[in-house]
Structures are given as structure tokens and as C-alpha cells.
């Protein structure tokens, strides 16, 4: 019997299946307004980004690390004179971010329902464990997945491990996501197909050049176009 070229499909979560970055942007706007008397908003945003990148190896990805980076930035911007009331407000907006509603993106449910039962579906997302579990539960999409993997980071070894454990190895797997850096490039390096679904808001840390010369790279405008890509492979 001829083996199907594709048996396992991985999906990123944030800004692939549901909105996420827009809530971070709104929180960052609130943060810059809190410190408006100390620096311009673009300066505050740049310092916050530096703190986030610096702290990734300590706190990982997610809201808790973002909140700690806001506090650290506030201390730096004010040269250690940030009022305790401002720290309290930063903690409040961090907690609000942890409670934002889940808004699934167009075609997410229909696409997963169409693929469920035909392929092994696995959610592969990074970030805070509790927050990602909350969002998955509120999305109502959890029952459509055969496996859920919440990881500290995404690299080629991550995809090799998951696709070998859940499916038939990375060569017969596909990863769908909005981040070239986290979802697509490392999946391609592992030997999988990588389908890039751009989102209008993507954290600058996740930006890299499109690997247009990679034979297993695909790009679609939205999840509704994924079926055509998969059919072409089969």
C-alpha cells in the first residue's frame, strides 16, 4: 500500500486559531499611558521590548513574563522612582490580560472540523500553561484535537519529538501558524511541511524572512484555504 504523504497536522494557537496579539497591544498602550510623564510612548515600547527579549530565558513566553517585564521597564524608565500605585496598576492590567475573552479567528472551527477524524490533529503552542489551557477550554476547540502540546519554545527538535510521538514522524506532518520564526522555519528544518497564515498583528520578535525557496513551504491568506493545500499534497 502507498503511504499517505500527510497523516498529522499541527496547529499553532495564538493568532492562528484565536486572537491574541491585539490584547497585548492594548495592554502595552495602557502601560505607556501610565508612564507618559516620564518618556515618549515609542521610547517606553522600545524599552519594554528590550526587557521582554532579555527576560525570555528567565520567564519564557506568556503574560506573566510580560507583566514582570512591564514592571522592570517602569523601574528603569523612572530611574527607580516608580510609585507603588503604578506598580499596582501594572499588576491589574496584567491580570486583565489573563482574563481576556477568547475570539476565534475566521474559518478556525470549520477547518478543524473538516480535518478531524481524517488526520491526527495536534495543538502546539507556547506560553503560560494555565493561560493556554484556559483559552483552549473557552475556545470550544479542544475536542477536535488528538493531542495538545504546550511547550516553552518551538524549534526543530520540538517538532521532531511531537510529530514522532503523536504521528508518523515529521516527514509526514504539517505545521500551520502565523509565526515564521516559531511555527514555520523550525518545522521545515524538522522535515515537515510548513503553512504560513499571516496575521495582521504579529509580535516583532517573531519576524523573519519567508523561506520561499523551501520546497515544503506554503502560504495562505486564511485557514479556509488550507483544504486546497492539503488536497494538492494527497
TrEMBL record:
The lineage of its organism: Bacteria, Pseudomonadati, Pseudomonadota, Alphaproteobacteria, Hyphomicrobiales. Pfam families: Hydrolase. This is Hydrolase of the HAD superfamily. GO terms for molecular function: hydrolase activity. It comes from Rhizobium tropici. Keywords: Hydrolase. InterPro entries: HAD-like_sf, HAD_sf, PGP-like_dom2, S-2-haloacid_dehalogenase. It comes from the Bacteria.
Amino acid at each position: 500500500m502507498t503511504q499517505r504523504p500527510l497523516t498529522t497536522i499541527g496547529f499553532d494557537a495564538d493568532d492562528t486559531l484565536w486572537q491574541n496579539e491585539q490584547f497585548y497591544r492594548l495592554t502595552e498602550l495602557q502601560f505607556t499611558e501610565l508612564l507618559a510623564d516620564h518618556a515618549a510612548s515609542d521610547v517606553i515600547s522600545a524599552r519594554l521590548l528590550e526587557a521582554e527579549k532579555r527576560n525570555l530565558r528567565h520567564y519564557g513566553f506568556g503574560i506573566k513574563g510580560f507583566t514582570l517585564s512591564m514592571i522592570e521597564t517602569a523601574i528603569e524608565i523612572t530611574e527607580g522612582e516608580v510609585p507603588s500605585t503604578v506598580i499596582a496598576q501594572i499588576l491589574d492590567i496584567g491580570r486583565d490580560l489573563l482574563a481576556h475573552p477568547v475570539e476565534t479567528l475566521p474559518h478556525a472551527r470549520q477547518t478543524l472540523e473538516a480535518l478531524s477524524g481524517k488526520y491526527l490533529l495536534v495543538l502546539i503552542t507556547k506560553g503560560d500553561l494555565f493561560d493556554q489551557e484556559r483559552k483552549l477550554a473557552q475556545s470550544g476547540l479542544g475536542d477536535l484535537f488528538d493531542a495538545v502540546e504546550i511547550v516553552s519554545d518551538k524549534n526543530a527538535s520540538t517538532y521532531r519529538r511531537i510529530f514522532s510521538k503523536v504521528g508518523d514522524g515529521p516527514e509526514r506532518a504539517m505545521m500551520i501558524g502565523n509565526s515564521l520564526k516559531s511555527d514555520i522555519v523550525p518545522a521545515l528544518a524538522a522535515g515537515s511541511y510548513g503553512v504560513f497564515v499571516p496575521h495582521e498583528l504579529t509580535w516583532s520578535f517573531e519576524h523573519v524572512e519567508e523561506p520561499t525557496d523551501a520546497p515544503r513551504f506554503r502560504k495562505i491568506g486564511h485557514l479556509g484555504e488550507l483544504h486546497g493545500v492539503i488536497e494538492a499534497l494527497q
